[in-house]
Amino acid sequence: MNHSVDPEYSSVNQKSNKDFLSIDLLSDLSIDLLSQLKEGGFLSLKDVIIEGPLELSTRCGISMDDSNFIYNQTITFLEDIGVIDMRFTPATTLYDKRKRIGRISTGSQNFNKLLGGGIETNAITEVYGEFGTGKTQLCHTACVMVQLSYSQGGLDGGALYIDTENTFRPERIETISKARHQNPKQILDNIVVARAYSSSHQELILSESSRIIESQNIKLLIFDSAISLYRSEFLGLSSLSLRQQRLNKLIHSIMRIAQTHQIAVLLTNQVQSSPETGFANLSFKAAGGNIFAHSSTYRIYLRKSNRNRIARMVDSPNHPESETVFSIGESGITDPQKE
Ligand code: ATP
Ligand code: MG
């Protein structure tokens, strides 16, 4: 049963999409196996990669051996056609590719510089901070910026906004668009919003997101916020390990979606106080424990500083720890006004 996908985004739409790679392309599989995959909901090769062999086996009722075989066949096929990197790739090729990687402007030059040019595709950018520090404003601004042309800091694509806190506001998109001289109607038309009501609903939405990403030319996937539903549902120490297991699965699915569809993922996270450094130095840590800490590609801590905000790069495989100042205005995230 399919509850959260609008019929407008039906499989008929995907099949006419140039990025749709049908499972039928696996020519070595028997007709019976192919129909089992389809019955399990695996229509696209990218679904196989994103869901992984265990899910493939469970949902399609096939042995793990068959499932691993299909998974490896799929990887090899996608390598051959250049959708994913070859399993042995010279570092120089990767370096050349990284120079051309897509980035979405945040709306602030300072913030972009902190990120090495903007919010990166094929990666997870996590922003965390206290209430009112600009996490949701960044998400709204990025929804507009991703739609601009490459020369204006966008990727000429749409946004999929998974809203777990009921804070997505189309009116805000309208003001940001107008302040940036964009047509608000056109911008709103290219944002798909999914309101998640529970952690399992959020997982269902994520598992159905591939078809939207392909059919709607989505280049930015947003989770605002990624783990609040898990925090509110899994209370107490006894449920901690189950919560971490579910979060682990979630974050790895998100990463596979980012890499397989070559899109940017922006997720917001809450903070929890960390009294480790003593009461006088009470600091804040991102919620979610080690699982999120290790899985996000870039982690950015936001805090208030009078009328402005400070963004600090806390963890990155290729940036030093550093910080910058930005502001929130009519046009969303911007550079601070010169005094
Ligand atoms: P939470 O943890 O509660 O979700 P958040 O980090 O998502 O918080 P945001 O909603 O992004 O917080 O930011 C709220 C801030 O954005 C407020 O300080 C508010 O004044 C500012 N803000 C909201 N709309 C506008 C606007 N139209 N113009 C200028 N500033 C705005
Ligand atoms: Mg918010």
- Reading off the top of the CATH hierarchy, the class of the largest domain is best stated as Alpha Beta
Count of all domains:
2
Q: Alpha-carbon distance between the termini?
A: 57 Å
Largest sheet: 9 strands, mixed
What is the H/E string? HHHHHEHEEHEHHEHHEHHEEEHEEEE
Which compounds are bound in this model?
Answer: adenosine-5'-triphosphate, magnesium ion
What overall form do the CA principal axes indicate? Answer: globular
Helix-strand makeup class = alpha/beta
Number of helices: 14
Helix percentage range: 40-55%
Uncertain runs with pLDDT below 50, 5 residues or more? Answer: 1-16, 277-282
The average pLDDT value, as a whole number, equals 90
- Radius of gyration from the CA trace? 20 Å
How many strands? 13
Q: How would you write the strand order of the largest sheet?
A: 5-4-6-7-3-10-11-12-13
Percent of residues in beta strands? 15-25%
CATH architecture of the largest domain: 3-Layer(aba) Sandwich
Give the name of the CATH superfamily of the largest domain.
P-loop containing nucleotide triphosphate hydrolases
Question: Assembly state here?
Answer: single chain
Find the CATH topology of the largest domain.
Rossmann fold
